[in-house]
Structure formats: C-alpha cells, structure tokens
Write a structure and sequence with these properties.
Blueprint (H helix, E strand, L loop, with lengths): L21 E3 L4 H9 L4 E4 L2 E4 L2 E2 L11 H18 L7 E8 L9 H15 L5 E6 L10 E8 L7
Parallel strand pairs: 5-6
Antiparallel strand pairs: 1-2, 2-3, 3-7, 4-7, 5-7
C-alpha cells in the first residue's frame, strides 16, 4: 500500500486597503516617458517596489558612446527611480538585465564586468538574484542595456 500525498496548503495574503498601487515617475526623463509613451518608471504596492526597465540615457534620452558609461548611467537612473518610489539599492532583491551582445553569441565581457562592479559599488555585501539576458535589440536606437529591479522596503507607517 502506498501513501497518498497530502495537498500542500497555499498561503494567500489579502492586501490591506492601504496596499494600493502607487506609481512613480523619475524626475527628468520620467516626465517625458510618461507623456510620450504613457508609462511610469516604478510601482509600489505595500513593501514591494517594481521598476520598469531603465536605460543609460540622460534626461534628454541621449546615450553615451561608451558601453561602460551607458551601464553606469542605467544604474544611476535606477537609483533615481528607486528613490522616487521610496527605495534604495540596499532594498533590491532581484535584478533582470537585458543586453545587446558585443559579439554574436556572447553578451560580452564589458557587460558582465561593469554590471558586477556596479553591484559591488552600490549594494556592498548584498547579492540579489540576477538574470542577465542577451537580446537582439532594445526599445531605442543605439540602446545596449536595460535593467529592471524588484525591491522590498519597509512598509509605510500609518499617519
């Protein structure tokens, strides 16, 4: 006689009425993106912040010539976006990055090296989960990297 497996209980969480989506727009380029493309850079629901993909653009949506500078700028833009949503790099638990490869079949040394340098510089000992994906193209001409993150922050304190 074999034992019948028991069902695993699934815990569900009911969000309190205060855990409504709060969308935020990064000052500068975010206002332009909202007007032009009708999207926000981040959403906070309770203690969770999700960002949209951030590129290495400046406030006029220009990209630097250097790939290294573009990646650093993408991290700078994520920092601004996290701040607008009430989070910091120390709250980040998950990173997805999308890269136009330097050479066919390989994302390239520069992408990985600079990403890791930025993780170390901005998050210290924190090591979030990370998925690095090569893609043939991104949203804007000349764009070579896009990064999005998930952060868990302290819930807002009631007034």
């Amino acid at each position: 006689m074999t034992a019948t497996p028991t069902a695993t209980a699934i815990q569900t969480t009911v969000l309190p009425s205060t855990a409504r989506p709060e969308f935020s727009v990064t000052p500068g380029y975010g206002d332009h993106m909202l007007e032009l493309m009708r999207y926000s850079q981040a959403v906070r629901i309770g203690d969770r912040v999700e960002t949209s993909g951030q590129g290495g653009w400046d406030d006029e949506l220009n990209f630097p010539e250097s790939l290294e500078e573009e990646i650093v700028r993408a991290f700078d833009n994520l920092e601004r976006t996290l701040a607008a949503a009430g989070a910091t790099w120390s709250d980040v638990v998950h990173v997805n990055s999308y890269h136009v490869p330097e050479v066919p079949g390989f994302i390239g040394e520069t992408h990985g090296r600079v990403m890791v340098e930025q993780f170390r510089a901005r998050m210290g000992g924190r090591a979030p989960i990370w998925t690095e994906t090569g893609v043939p193209a991104l949203a804007a001409p000349g764009m070579r990297v896009e990064i999005r993150v998930t952060a868990i922050v302290e819930p807002p304190k009631p007034a």
